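Risk register update: the risk of archive-format incompatibility is retired. Evidence:
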Amino acid sequence: MPQLFDITTSILYQEGMEKGMEKGMEKGMEKGAMKKSLILIANLLGMAEMPSEQIAQIVGVEKELVSLVKTKLDAGEWTHPDQWSEDQWAAYFGR
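Archived output:
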């Protein structure tokens, strides 16, 4: 005769759920910070003739990210990130 066991009452299950939720929140915060960084980079690129190194230092990112944003914007592959839809953000983070 099968025994019924509610796994959600297990300590291990509860600890796993807690860790999973913490990890999900961290990823969400990282994405939020990355969104803000991409928007700030695009704004700075559009405002002044500032070297990529200086923008990277101001934003707190690698110079390569600034170069990537500049290349994508200049080539017309990207619109300004503050105009992106949720689908475009999802595609960026899915890379």
